[in-house]
Amino acid sequence: MITNKKGIALGILTADCAPILFYDPKKNIIAAVHAGWRGAYKKIVIKIIKSFLKNGSFVKDLKVVIGPCIAQNNYEVKNDFKKKFIKQSRKNIVYFKFAKNKIFFSLRDYLKSQLINFGVKNIEIIKKDTYNKKNNFFSSRRSLNNKNNDYGRNISLIMIK
Fold first, then answer.
1. Which of 77, 89, 97, 137 is the most buried (most CB within 10 A)?
2. Torsion angle of alpha carbons 49, 55, 56, 61, nearest 10°?
3. pLDDT by residue (tens digit) across 106-123?
């Protein structure tokens, strides 16, 4: 979602995926994006930046926050998942960690690199792992692993005053 209207809050619900909030203080435009692995793979953040550019923004003016999401240490993936990302670009291997015959993916770093590669310099990352219960966020993966019926949602909001 993207808007330049004052007083309208944009909200994103997540439960391990990354909420990403965009702001251009010069053009007074905001956006809220939900980025799971599929959206990240399809470069949703680049699509949003291009929308900002179409509305007169400059990349140098953008401020971006990547909110709490599942951390690499808890984001175990299968080999076919890794192959998909490596097929997209061999450089993507840096977002994978291998430990005890398991593969782990860093969604946060993958998204951050897309922003940096497109020229965004003002990026804040909230390094809170939604999977880690002590951080008090809802986690889809943690709930599934604990065989809970549901996992709740986290909301991230942005608004122009």
1. 137
2. -40
3. 999 999 999 999 999 999
Domains of the chain in sequence order: 2-71+107-158 (3.60.140.10)
pLDDT of residue 148: 87
Chain segment 84-98, per-residue pLDDT in tens: 999 999 999 999 999
The pTM score is 0.94
The three-state DSSP-derived secondary structure of the chain is CEECCCCCCEEEEECCCEEEEEEECCCCEEEEEEECHHHHHCCHHHHHHHHHHHCCCCHHHCEEEECCECCHHHCEECHHHHHHHHHHCHHHHHHEEEECCEEEECHHHHHHHHHHHCCCCEEEECCCECCCHHHCCCCHHHHHHCCCCCCCCEEEEECCC
Structure tokens at 137: 């966020």
